[in-house]
């Protein structure tokens, strides 16, 4: 079955990339309803090879600071250097005009939104001024075609800076069309080239369950959002990690659950509130996937504070279950050494690297020693066995010194991490950033997935290109 005919039930959370955001792929469910753990890279030009999205929402364009852009490395033929493309708001057919502090290109997500057989790309510009609203934000669809991405359509306009950020895709109203949610609004499909989204609604994460002194200033901070069918009812749900800050003092992290329905997303419900009632903090980065194969998507979180840990909140008929939380940290026997005092679980990605049908979890470990190199960056791949515990034997330590990785004089930057199937063989590759302070900065490496796990053999690295002058 063509991947363009699959229905998304979960979009992985985005992670910070070199100078921008690295877009993470979707876990997919076939029309038959069976869950697939294959995470497919986008194929914008329809050549049957996965493409790599490399955004820099902080990038300078035509001398304008933090204007932002997005680059694409089109899937290379074996042994060849990938062809790259840079898209800015000044590119032909893209709505708007490049401006300072637009932050164009952030939070990329993808799908064949117009059902023409080519993957389309959605990016945000969280600082875009729209009309009289400074920093309203705007999300834009860049359309795929036989020559790659070209042209664009405004998908949604925000109401404040950040409202269009942290994009995820799913069918939240169950009508068979993909919808695009952000931390402040949702654009419902079908999405067309001429009309954009069918409708848009605002998303409010405030549950009204907290008490605030009238003298205090209340500020909501949304750390991350993710999508998945956590209650198994066939509608994509939205999960959010947020906090209420009071007069500049950060509050406990909240895990919020917005249930999908035929009317769209319902009002948020707090599932976990920080350390209340002995429950562990959920962390700031989340993804979803059915780790225990029970038909309900589970929530995987990375908590990079202190020595760091990975937590799993299991899904069920009523949604995320706060009574069922599993924690994996560096002292867990399945986690390969060396143990580090900080930097573990600063990023994560969910996918099936060996093609056995069980979800694995890749964890960024920022400051592990790799050979004689101190405080280098590696990725720990926790092996899934269908139990959801992430403690199965066979975990891997993946780093720049693996045989076949074409890096010299530099290491990984594991804050910038994704798992996606770039060669469409049913196994996810690791996509990881490179050290921005090295001799080879601002790039990504792709390490293949095999039946035995991740390997450096056949890997390749791509530098993020810079935009030329367009005006």
Automatic annotation (TrEMBL):
Checking Pfam families in the record gives:
FG-GAP_3 (PF13517)
Q: Which UniProt keywords apply?
A: Signal
- Return the protein name: VCBS repeat-containing protein
SUPFAM superfamilies annotated for this entry?
A: Integrin alpha N-terminal domain
Q: Which domain of life is it from?
A: Bacteria
InterPro entries recorded: FG-GAP, Integrin_alpha_N
